[in-house]
């Protein structure tokens, strides 16, 4: 069991940890930092934080040969763009250092957030400074501090709020830009995710597509947004994603974080969507285990919040909500997410959820990765990062490049010099729903007599991130949306250029599982393809960026909620499988 740390000491004991040679990235081990909910910072703490972010963003990026490693540009750039290594020119690889869809997702991001915190402490000369987290359990909207344009610091005066946005100190070029055709196949257009120097990061409802072919349309679209209402729209979207409207039977991301932190049975399935999908495939095929419910990895709700801030609608029944579908904020794509300062507060929360999982599973000193399980190969989802070979096995000893740590080194956060102030989340029972809300809770497996598995939805032909939704219709009446229920939801946090070749070994399909509420499934266990008449009772929709023509006949990228086509060139499947338990 975890020993509570006495915060009065100045330096944790690392003498027996063997960590010394790996700590070169750390500004200083002491003093110990206590990471709090950003809403609980006092005025001085908030001023110190804002000043440190301001200073870090003001730092020049250095040169390609000698980057300034304590600049916001360099650190934010470790995650995705600007690409380097094999991923610069080849979509089979990943040009950023971050890990998604594999077992290194929580540990790599732990080292990443620590690197940012170290740099903040160093540039501000405040060794006590701790990065706070955006408490997504408690706050269902974006805290004010992230949405105000200006901030007034003592002595310095009014500055652009460095937590609101970041202006790129240097641009980056999308070397993987490609030609894609619109849905009718008649118009071709370059898909280009370049961003110039001084580009300012944006969130829902704004679009940040500023490549050559998109610039004009984006400016025109952004000009239609009423700035005074922009924050309201962002918050509305985030609220729906985190809480899920009561008309759905799918839980919101908040509930999924709870499932992950309290219930994921081992680190491997807790850590990422690829491993969790395999675990759930096994549960799905062994119906007597349905009492255990499907597992949730921490990566899944993490993806949902990225998409919420980036501007992807929660595809609920209330289709009259005004969140514009052309929103393309930086948080919504892997390529640029880390340039939005809110990324680090979101990931500080993810790291806290990781720590909670460790605490609830007696894994604060040690845990392991199941060898050779899906999610342990760099080609399982995103492609190998720079310098990594495609056939390497990801394990506790894999370097978390570019940081001088392995996953083993970052197991115990107290040895890394910090802790979370999160006492109320250390209780043994899973966090209850917030009392003021009527929350749709997941269908209890004991009540569900059927479940659905959807597989074969490809990432390769889709531009950027997307959302997969499963709708259940009570009758055979087609398009009876008034009575449809959203029963499954998968936020897929992706990038603009995913390997598209048939020969690529990367596994690029999405699989999702959901329990079905009573009376919402086709009769009996069955497996069928999209387009089959049985699909009428279960419709699979994909919300993604597509090339379409606008009213002037000009091709544009637009967020579209579409049924998947069943086109094997796009989706190798997709298969819908229903299993029913008798009795
Ligand atoms: Cu992330």
Question: What's the Cα radius of gyration?
Answer: 23 Å
Annotation, overall tally of beta strands: 14
Order of helices and strands: EHHHEEEEHHHHHHHEEEEEEEEE
What is the topology, as strand order, of the major beta sheet? 10-7-14-11
**CATH fold-level assignment:** di-copper center containing domain from catechol oxidase
| Averaged pLDDT | 82
Amount of helix: 10-25%
Number of helices: 10
| Strand residue percentage | 15-25%
Q: Mind describing the biggest β-sheet?
A: 4 strands, antiparallel
Domain Tyrosinase copper-binding: 99-117, 340-351
EC number: 1.14.18.1
Enzyme class: oxidoreductase
Region (Disordered): 308-332
Walk me through what this model shows.
- By secondary structure, this protein is α+β, with helices and mostly antiparallel strands.
- It has a single domain, classed as di-copper center containing domain from catechol oxidase (Orthogonal Bundle), CATH 1.10.1280.10.
- Helix content is 22%, strand content 15%.
- It has 10 helices and 14 strands.
- The chain has helices at 43-58, 72-79, 105-124, 215-223, 227-243, 253-263, 267-271, 273-285, 299-310, 342-360, and strands at residues 33-35, 150-153, 157-160, 178-181, 188-191, 418-420, 450-458, 463-472, 485-492, 509-516, 526-529, 538-549, 555-563, 575-580.
- The strands form 5 sheets. The protein has a 4-stranded antiparallel β-sheet, covered by helices on one side. Strands 9-8-12-13 form a 4-stranded antiparallel β-sheet. A two-stranded parallel sheet has the order 1-6.
- The protein is globular, with a radius of gyration of 23 Å.
- It starts with 32 loop residues before the first strand and ends with a strand.
- Residues 1-25 and 435-441 have low confidence and may be disordered.
- Bound molecules: copper (II) ion.
- Copper (II) ion (CU) binds at residues 302, 306, 337, 347.
- It comes from Aspergillus eucalypticola (strain CBS 122712 / IBT 29274).
- It holds the Pfam family Tyrosinase.
């Amino acid at each position: 069991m975890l020993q509570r740390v006495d915060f009065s000491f100045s330096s944790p004991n690392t003498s027996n940890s063997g960590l010394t040679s790996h700590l070169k990235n750390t500004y200083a081990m002491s003093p110990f930092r206590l990471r709090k909910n950003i809403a609980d910072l006092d005025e001085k703490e908030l001023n110190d934080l804002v000043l440190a972010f301001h200073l870090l963003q003001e730092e020049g990026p250095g040169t390609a040969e000698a980057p300034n490693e304590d600049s916001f540009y360099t650190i934010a750039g470790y995650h995705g763009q600007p690409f380097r290594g094999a991923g610069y020119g080849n979509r089979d690889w990943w040009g950023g250092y971050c890990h998604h869809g594999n077992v290194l997702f929580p540990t790599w991001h732990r080292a990443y957030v620590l690197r940012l915190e170290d740099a903040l402490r160093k540039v501000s000369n405040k060794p006590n400074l701790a990065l706070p987290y955006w408490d997504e359990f408690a706050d269902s909207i974006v805290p004010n501090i992230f949405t105000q344009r200006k901030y007034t610091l003592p002595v310095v005066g009014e500055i652009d709020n460095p937590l609101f946005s970041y202006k790129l100190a240097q641009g980056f070029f999308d070397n993987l830009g490609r030609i894609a055709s619109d849905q009718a196949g008649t118009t071709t257009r370059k898909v280009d995710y370049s961003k110039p120097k001084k580009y300012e990061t944006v969130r829902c409802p704004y679009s940040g597509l500023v490549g050559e072919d998109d610039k004009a349309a984006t400016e025109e679209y952004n000009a239609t947004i009423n700035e005074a209402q922009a924050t309201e729209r962002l918050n509305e979207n985030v609220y729906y994603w985190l809480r899920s409207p009561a008309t759905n039977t799918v839980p919101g991301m908040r509930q999924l974080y709870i499932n992950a932190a309290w219930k994921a049975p081992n680190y491997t399935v807790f850590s990422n969507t690829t491993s969790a999908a395999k675990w759930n495939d096994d549960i799905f095929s062994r119906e007597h285990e349905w009492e255990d419910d499907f597992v949730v990895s921490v990566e899944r709700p993490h993806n949902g919040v990225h998409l919420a801030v980036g501007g992807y609608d929660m595809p609920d029944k209330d289709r009259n909500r005004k969140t514009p579908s052309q929103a393309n904020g930086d948080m919504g794509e892997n390529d640029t997410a880390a340039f939005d300062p809110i990324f680090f507060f979101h990931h500080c929360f993810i790291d806290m959820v990781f720590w909670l999982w460790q605490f609830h599973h007696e894994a604060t000193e040690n845990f392991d990765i199941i060898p050779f399980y899906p999610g342990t190969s760099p080609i399982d989802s995103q492609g190998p990062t720079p310098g990594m070979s495609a056939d390497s096995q990801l394990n506790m000893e894999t370097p978390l490049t570019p940081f001088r740590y392995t996953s083993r080194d970052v197991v115990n956060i107290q040895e890394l010099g910090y802790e979370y102030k999160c006492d109320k989340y250390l209780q043994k029972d899973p966090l209850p729903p917030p009392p003021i809300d009527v929350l749709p809770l997941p269908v209890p497996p004991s009540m569900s007599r059927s479940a659905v598995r959807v597989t074969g939805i490809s990432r390769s032909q889709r531009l950027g991130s997307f959302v997969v939704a499963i709708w259940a219709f009570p009758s055979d009446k087609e398009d009876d949306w008034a009575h449809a229920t959203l029963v499954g939801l998968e936020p897929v946090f992706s990038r603009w250029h995913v390997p598209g070749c048939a020969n690529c070994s990367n596994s690029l399909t999405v699989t999702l599982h959901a329990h079905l509420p009573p009376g919402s499934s086709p009769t009996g266990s069955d497996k069928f393809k999209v387009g089959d008449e049985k699909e009428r009772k279960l419709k699979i929709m994909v919300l993604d960026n597509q090339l379409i023509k606008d009213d002037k006949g000009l091709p544009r990228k637009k967020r579209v909620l579409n049924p998947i086509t069943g086109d094997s060139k796009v989706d190798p499947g997709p298969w819908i499988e229903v299993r029913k338990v008798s009795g």
